[in-house]
Amino acid sequence: MVQYTLPQAPELKINVSGKDSAKARDKAMEKLIGLIESGEIPPETADGFGPQQFIEVDEPGTLIVGSEDALNQAVQILSGLATLKLKAQDSRAAALEVREKIDILFTDDPISEEDIAEFKDGFKILKTYAQANLKYRAARAQAETAREVLDEALKSPDPDPEDIPEETTKTKSKKR
Q1: pLDDT value for 54
Q2: Which of 73, 115, 169, 171 would staple 111 via disulfide (CB 3.0–4.6 Å)?
Q3: How many CB atoms within 10 Å of residue 23?
Q4: DSSP string, the chain
Q5: What is the pLDDT of residues 106-162, one digit of tens each?
Q6: Number of structural domains found in the chain
Q7: Do residue 131 and residue 84 come from a single domain?
């Protein structure tokens, strides 16, 4: 099962059986068209939208605290979060530069074909950053649970406040 969302409507989730592939994206596109035709979502949500523009969403798995599988999964989730954060960070500066240049399009100043070519490359950078950032933000929610699983596993049988990371004690005291 794979789940997709749209950059224009990240709250919308479309589930399709199978793994991420061109065929799965086509099925998701059919479902999207069905949602538009049934009136569940406004037609402008998908204006100019194609199957290749879907963003794959990693759904948070259920972690059962105390199990070895949960611990392994928690470590994998946190490792994935680190990778996603790095991808988002690496492309952020370039994306912000491109974003500043976009304002030129809204002025009466003339632009050259070279400028247009730069914009087209810049839009790819913006898209890459936006997708990486969306994936990172989604993974962060899942990683919170993973962090709790690790914190639970790291507790000693006789809890000593000095053994628990300071961040955990702050988080726990906020929940009370």
Answers
A1: 81
A2: 115
A3: 12
A4: -EEEEETTEEEEEEEESSSSSHHHHHHHHHHHHHHHHTTSS-GGGGTT--GGG-EEEPPPPP--TT-HHHHHHHHHHHHHHHHHHHHHHHHHHHHHHHHHHHGGGGSSS---HHHHHHHHHHHHHHHHHHHHHHHHHHHHHHHHHHHHHHHHHH--SS--TTTS-HHHHHHHHHH-
A5: 999 999 999 899 999 999 999 989 998 998 988 888 888 888 888 888 887 665 556
A6: 2
A7: yes
pLDDT at 23 (0 to 100): 92
Last residue of a domain, one of 11, 37, 57: 57
Whether 27 and 40 map to the same domain: the answer is yes
State which residues form the domain around 13: 1-57
Q: Assess whether 27 and 70 both reside in one domain.
A: no
The pTM of this model reads: 0.48
Does residue 169 carry a pLDDT above 80?
no
What pLDDT, in 10s, does the model give residues 53-74? Answer: 888 876 544 444 456 777 888 8
Burial of 51 (0-12, 13-18, 19+ CB in 10 A): middle
Buried-exposed string 130-163: b where 16+ CB fall within 10 A, e elsewhere: ebbbbbbebbeebbebbbbbbbeeeeeeeeeeee
